[in-house]
Amino acid sequence: MQKFDLIVIGGGPGGYLCAERAGKAGLRPALIEKRALGGTCLNEGCIPTKSLLYCAKQYQAALHGADYGVTAENVSFDHAKVVARKDGVVRTLVRGVGAAMKAHGVTVFSAEGKILGKDGENFTVSAGGEVLSAPRLVIATGSSAAVPPIPGVKEGLASGFVMTNREILALQTQPKSLVCIGGGVIGLEMACYFASIGTKVTVVEMMPKIAGNTDPEICDLLMKTYRKQGMEFCLGAKVEAVTGTGVVYSDAAGQHTVPCDRVLLSAGRRADVTGLGAEAIGLALERGAVVTDAQMRTNVPGVWAIGDCNGKLMLAHTAYREAEVAVGCLRGIPDKMDYTCVPSVIYTTPEVASVGLSEEEAKKSGHEIKAVKVPMLFSGRYVAENVRGEGFCKLVYDMTDDRLLGVQMVGSYASEIIYGAGMMVQLALPLEQLKKIVFPHPSVCEVLREGLFML
Ligand code: FAD
């Protein structure tokens, strides 16, 4: 039996950062990963999608360069090369995680971790042929694509006609047509990539709008822009079946079939604790996810759960912060998780980013607010770089408490700007103090400054 101070199960952003921080603090952590270090984020999520989307953006820039005085002939796109480049990016980053584990004294086990139970004060976990023990355990097993019980989906997954994020990111040949079941962030990012490179894309979404709880005005602009890019949308549409050649859905007008080459299942994610042995220590689960409090503690003393597996807010940066909270708490340093200022981003063209409350949410929760909308065209840099562009930024301000409640933006650089808005919301500084912040000029983030002076 190998003894450690801490065992972490799952080597995604939550797990690897937790192990790294614990090692840095002088603990002896073991990290168990059954597939690849970096988890969903590095191998089949955040990074691969952004790598593909960047290449598609380059392609579009080459195609439409004439608007900027740049003409290129015989512009072509090689999807297989783009996937190979993406694989290289992933390899580099996964290697980096491996090096960070080594540098921080983390012992990595490439195996499936299964909780065996307790031996006195210590938890015992099997990892391949080894048994590990430690007084503290962190569960960071992540999530997997939800597979709804739609007739034909299981068969489609088996034949390769239906894909999850895992398979589509490894697809070597570009499909001529693609149906995305689900118009949330994952579906839209993949739809945007494939539509940009010439695949005929249809998004079938059960709700009357795309992009989850994104600001309705932003959704309208997204739909308009995506449609110009060639995407089609079936909203309020319930998928009834997947046949070998298409997707059958019903809406208020009746039943329809969309023929296609491939189907992407992007209908949400489920916390993944299958085969973990949660029952061996009586770990409480709710709808398949590990129940945690604000310190990431589970119902079992000495066990924490971070990242997607607790089902709270399935984002890599949430997992990072939860990892830090858990490491602080298990070392006796008070800390707690605050989900109110976690930014969220859709990395399509245009980009969408938001943090805090939207105008609608703020009103619903009884705040006395003032909301302003600033066109991105107020930024000199935005005008210099965008021949067309209808992006905007919304600021939601609490007049009683004199603080910013939320910011939503759509347009280029939104993903890079939002952390600044997040700081303003999180630090809850009075408006007069926010107005004293100096912004670089020319920059698109200046729309935030414009907004502050309009409040
Ligand atoms: P994961 O990254 O899922 O890692 C969990 C790890 O645990 C996996 O490697 C798994 O193999 C391992 N594991 C599971 N069970 C065991 C076991 N029993 N033993 C050993 N190992 C085990 N988030 C963002 O913030 N920004 C984005 O742009 C973004 N884009 C995304 C795009 C896609 C297509 C997808 C699918 C997700 C995206 N996400 C994004 C979400 C993000 O990937 C997750 O929120 C994040 O990876 C969660 O981290 P985690 O550590 O909790 O879990």
Task: Throw out a few tags for this protein.
455 residues; alpha/beta; 14 helices; 33% helix; binds flavin-adenine dinucleotide
Short précis:
By secondary structure, this protein is an alpha/beta fold.
Q: Could you walk me through the main structural features you see in this protein, from its secondary elements to its overall organization?
A:
- The protein is of the alpha/beta class.
- The protein has helices at 13-24, 39-44, 46-63, 79-103, 153-159, 165-168, 185-196, 216-228, 316-330, 359-364, 380-385, 414-427, 431-434, 446-454; strands spanning 2-3, 6-9, 29-33, 107-110, 113-119, 122-127, 130-134, 137-139, 143-145, 162-163, 177-181, 200-204, 232-234, 238-242, 246-251, 254-259, 262-265, 269-271, 285-286, 289-290, 303-305, 344-346, 352-356, 369-375, 392-398, 403-410.
- A five-stranded parallel sheet has the order 4-3-2-8-21, with helices on one face. A five-stranded parallel sheet has the order 10-17-11-12-13. The chain has a five-stranded antiparallel sheet with strand order 22-23-26-25-24, sandwiched between helices.
- β14 and β15 (246-251) form a beta hairpin.
- The chain is globular, with a radius of gyration of 23 Å.
- Residues 9-15, 32-35, 39-41, 45-46, 49, 112-113, 140-143, 165, 186, 272, 275-276, 307-309, 314-317, 319, 347 line the site of flavin-adenine dinucleotide.
